[in-house]
Structures are given as structure tokens and as C-alpha cells.
Amino acid sequence: MIKKIILFSLVISQILTSCSSNDDAVSTETQLINKENLSKNEFPVCTTLEKTQNTGTTSKGNAVFKNNNSWITGQTIRIRFVGGSVELQNKIKEYASEWTSVANLNFVYVGANDESDASIFFETGSNYTFGRSINFGQLSNPNIPEDRIKGITLHEFGHLLGLQHENQNPAANIQWNKPAVYDYYQNVIGWSRDQVDSQIFNALPTSQYDIYTQYDSASVMTYSFPPSFTTDGFSVPFVSTLSRTDQMFIGKMFPYPIKSILYPWERLTTGARLTSPNGNYTLYIRSQKLILYSNTEFRDLGSITPNIKFSNALSSNVYLIISGNVIHLFKGSVSKTIGPNIPNIGNIDYITLNNSGNIDAVINGEVKFSVNIKD
């Protein structure tokens, strides 16, 4: 079965996913629970609560996810920031782009007063995703560690795309030490016993969630918890990167078309990318760079940064095109030549990404030169 938990049906009620550790994300406050010093920051929690539109109240019971967002494969999602420093916004953009490196979606960031598909807020308190709104209540703290910014960003954007908490995967089968878990969440977090049941112990019903794989403890969507929370010593540290299964799953939910050839009248962009015939490599634009990505190792193998001038440093788009006998990487109106500029060889018919991850330039049916951008 496929990884993570996601539904595409229209629904009446919306789901509030609130990710909370401590209002001060870097607090040194610890409490002695079951002979361990466990801080709220070290093992942050996320509560999934169903908010009924009619009453505006939050109901208890099983955690439920109903995807109102209905994103479409290939969609450009317009996102606006309401608050937050430019530096923090840029970090969120960079980390969130890890989702679109494997999912056929495009995040475009618009002005705070512009029409948007999703909104990001920075109201003091918890981190949560509610419908198409994300609140990063803890990220405004200037002392928050970088890995927390990355992990929280990826987690909340995962909710925005329709993913549920991995620890409630029907296949998880975590051997909880229930007395220790009740003790911690009641005394440190302030939950009731019913809330612990609904947020931690109760698996999501397979009658509603039938798209999932085996539990993935490396998923960015899972809870973190110490060994004392389980009877067999199993634990999960804070996760700040997408697991292989995260990447494979979201790629299956929002797949890219398989295309290996780029013609002179086309552009290679964030969404329009090349994939090698064997499926092992992808060439595309991400974070204002030309990226070669390994689909088997799930990592970047190399990149090329375009030439940047002051006038185009922030706002200009990056794309790759063919012009005559040259491959150009543009940022705005400023270009950089990719590969050699060989005179008198004729115009390039097309470029292709070969099975070794190299860019081949084809002229009159023959590969005239290749470009290797691996580091």
C-alpha cells in the first residue's frame, strides 16, 4: 500500500493540525518525568483536532484528516506571508522547496495583500496547519535551531499537501508504555487522558484512510519520543528532513511527466524538467539554481548557479533554454553558457538527459557534446 495518509474527498468540516512543543521553542525548562529530563522542546508534539464549522468548537475523539485543499497535479500554489522577517521567509521558501523537488507542484510566493491559495502566519503560540493556512508560532524566536526551522517547515507543508501524522498510521504498531506517555502528556503538555488516547494511541481507521504503507519512523510527519515512551525501548528523534518514503509517496501522489528531451522552443524550469530514460536522474530548476537530482539516492548530485546582477538578484525567474549552438541558463535577462560554445557545428536540435545524468546536445542526429554538472 502507498505511504502516508491522505483523502481527496470533499468534506463539510475542516481539520486543525496544531504542532506544539513550547511557546518558547528554545526554552531550557525541563521536567523530571519517569526518571528522565524531558523538555517540551526536545520532544515536540502535534495535535490533530477536528473543528466543526457550525459551532466553531473543537471536538474530541479520533484524529481525522479530511483534505479540503484538493491540490491538482502540476498546480501552481500561490502562497502569501503575513508577517515574519524576510530572512525567515527565505528559509521557509528554501526548505519547503524540498517537497516540490519530488512532487509535481509549484510554490509561488505573492504579496501579503495579493490573491493566494494558501497563507502563512506567525502568530505567537503553536505551529499548526488549518485548511490552507499555516501558523509558524515558534519560528519567530531568533534562537531557534536551524534544524527545527527546517523540520517544522517540512512538517507543516506536509500537512498543507494533505499528509497526516505518521505515528497514527494504521500499520504503526508502536509498543507504547502507556503509563509513561500519560504521565508526560498530562503533566508537561497539559492534555487530558482522552486527548492522549486520540492524539497518540488511537490509530487512524482504515475505513477512512486506505492509502498508506508500513510505518516510517524516519518520516518528517512522525512524532518524536524517547525510549521510555515504549515498552521495547523504541524511540524516534526529531526529524528535520524528508525520508525516502516521504519523497516516493508524495511523488506518486503528484507525479511529474516523464520527459527526457528539451527542444529549442521550450524552457526547463521548476515544473518543466528532464528525467533520464532509466528514471535515475532529474534535471530542473530549484532555489534559483540548475539542479541534477538522483531519484535513487534522493539527493542533489550537482548544481549550477546563474549569473546574478543587483537588478535581478531576487525577483527574476531562472530557466534553461537552447539558443543556436549554445545552452543558456538565464536569470531574468542575464545568461550563463552551460557547456562549450563550439563554432561551426550547427544549431542544436535538442538536448537530452542521458542515463548517466549528463546533458547531451544533439545536432543532426549525433551527440556533439555532453555536459556533466555532477559535483
Classified by CATH, the class of the largest domain is Alpha Beta
Give the count of helical stretches: 5
The low-confidence parts are 1-16, 21-37, 48-68
Identify the CATH architecture of the largest domain: 3-Layer(aba) Sandwich
**Cα distance spanning the termini:** 36 Å
CATH topology of the largest domain: Collagenase (Catalytic Domain)
Query: How would you write the strand order of the largest sheet?
Result: 5-4-1-9-10-8-6-7
Structural class: alpha+beta
- How many distinct beta strands? 21
Strand content: 25-35%
Using the CA coordinates, give the radius of gyration.
23 Å
What's the number of structural domains?
A: 2
Mean pLDDT, as a whole number? 80
C-alpha geometry = elongated
Description:
This protein is α+β, with helices and mostly antiparallel strands and about 375 residues long. The chain folds into two domains: about 15-245, Collagenase (Catalytic Domain) (3-Layer(aba) Sandwich); about 260-370, Agglutinin, subunit A (Orthogonal Prism). Helices cover about 15% and strands about 25% of the residues. It is built from five helices and 21 strands. The chain has helices spanning about 85-100, 145-160, 180-190, 195-200, 245-255, and strands at about 15-20, 30-35, 35-40, 45-50, 60, 75-80, 105-110, 120, 125-130, 135, 260, 275, 280-285, 290-295, 300-305, 320-325, 325-330, 335-340, 350-355, 360-365, 365-370. The chain has an eight-stranded mixed sheet with strand order 5-4-1-9-10-8-6-7, with helices on one face. A four-stranded antiparallel sheet has the order 11-19-20-21, with no helix packed on it. A four-stranded antiparallel sheet has the order 12-13-14-15, with no helix packed on it. β17 (about 325-330) and β18 form a beta hairpin. α1 crosses α2. The longest helix has 16 residues, at about 145-160. It is elongated. The two termini are about 35 Å apart.
